[in-house]
Amino acid sequence: MKIIANVLGMVSTNSYFVINESTGRCIIIDPEESADFLIEKCNKMQIKPVAILLTHGHFDHIGAVNGLKESLKIPVYAGAEEKEFLHDPSYNGSAKFGRTPVSVAVDICLRDSEIIEIAGFSIKVISTPGHTAGGVCYYFESEDVLFSGDVLFADSFGRTDFPGGSQKELADSIINKLFILPGETAVYPGHGHDTTIGYENANNPIKRVI
């Protein structure tokens, strides 16, 4: 596995390439703006995107989805409870913040604890409501890697003052679903630098909000 973070957009979103180095196939996670840039980078790296995985539906994680889907003809995966959120610009925030409204159609809706096989990777879907009602994290168990979206950050956690947010649910998601993962699990968040489950379990301030 090779992971590349493309930091894009007005709030510096991590849009990840997750690459199977033996085949060149690639998963794109949370593609923010600049579909053309991401496609050009894939071409230069000689990697082939096969799917788009969304951790949640906020505008800063979906700006390039439609452009990528149209150009590459690849499916979009997201949590089942996030489907309507992604579709409605008034909820996903793209109708605000000076952005062109974006409506994303989900091709494959995911459920908690579901295992999906993409690009040669086995990925467990972990439902993590709190930042949004239908947000999910993606756990690559064999690689000890978690993509946490805007749920868990290095030394921090996601905000809960947007539609569908709940501080109680967020704390429950992090403590009872993410902190039970192995301590050596690498965490790649939607913003900022990577961390580990062990470090966050010991140091993250989320436990103080319970």
What is the CATH third-level topology name? Metallo-beta-lactamase, Chain A
The level 1 CATH classification is Alpha Beta
Specify the number of helices.
6
Sheet with most strands: 6 strands, mixed
Portion of residues in helices? 10-25%
The assembly state of the depicted protein chains is single chain
The fraction of residues in strands falls at: 25-35%
Spatial extent as radius of gyration = 16 Å
CATH superfamily descriptor: Ribonuclease Z/Hydroxyacylglutathione hydrolase-like
Number of domains: 1
Widest sheet: strand ordering? 1-2-3-4-5-6
Provide the succession of SSEs. Answer: EEEHEHEHHEEEEEEEHEEH
The count of DSSP E runs of length 2 or more, i.e. the number of strands, is 14
- Low-pLDDT runs: none
The assigned CATH architecture is: 4-Layer Sandwich
Mean pLDDT: 95
Terminus-to-terminus distance = 36 Å
Overall outline: globular
Structural class, please? alpha/beta
